[in-house]
Amino acid sequence: MDFDKLVHQQTRLQIFAYLYRHGEATFPELREELGLTEGNLSSHLGTMEEADAVSVEKQFVDRRPQTTYALTDLGAEKFEEHVAALESLIDEL
C-alpha cells in the first residue's frame, strides 16, 4: 500500500488533521497546539503550500501581521484519501 508522502509524514499529518478539524488556524495557534518550533512548522507549511494543499492568508490585525492557513480542496481530498487508506489497512488486519 502506497501512502502519499506529503500527508503521511508525521508532522504534516498532524497539520493536515488539525486544519481539517478546525477549518483554519493562525501560525501561532498551530505552533502552540502542535508543539512545533517556528522553523519546523514554517518548513512543513511551505512544503504543503508548494503542493497546493494549504492556502495562506496574510493580513494585519491591530497593526500586527497575522498569517492564517486552511486546507485547500486538494489538501482536504488528500487527507481524506489518506484516512481511507489507513482504514482499509486496519480492515485488512
Provide the fold topology.
Blueprint lengths: L4 H4 L1 H13 L1 E3 H8 L3 H13 L3 E8 L2 E8 L1 H20 L1
Antiparallel strand pairs: 1-3, 2-3
Describe this structure in words.
With 93 residues, this protein is α+β, with helices and mostly antiparallel strands. Helices cover 62% and strands 20% of the residues. It is built from 5 helices and 3 strands. The protein has helices at residues 5-8, 10-22, 27-34, 38-50, 73-92; strands at 24-26, 54-61, 64-71. A 3-stranded antiparallel β-sheet has the order 1-3-2. β2 (54-61) and β3 (64-71) form a beta hairpin. The longest helix is centred in the C-terminal third of the chain and has 20 residues, at 73-92. The mean pLDDT is 96.
Condensed summary:
The protein is an alpha+beta fold and 93 residues long. It has five helices and three strands, in the order ααβααββα.
Mean pLDDT: 96
Distance between the termini: 13 Å
- Tell me the series of helices and strands, N- to C-terminal: HHEHHEEH
Principal-axis shape: elongated
The total of helices stands at 5
Strand content: 15-25%
Q: Indicate the low-confidence ranges by residue numbers.
A: none
Strand order of the largest sheet: 1-3-2
Structural class: alpha+beta
- Strand runs, count: 3
Please compute the radius of gyration using only Cα atoms. 14 Å
Major pleated sheet: 3 strands, antiparallel
The portion of residues assigned to helices is 55-70%
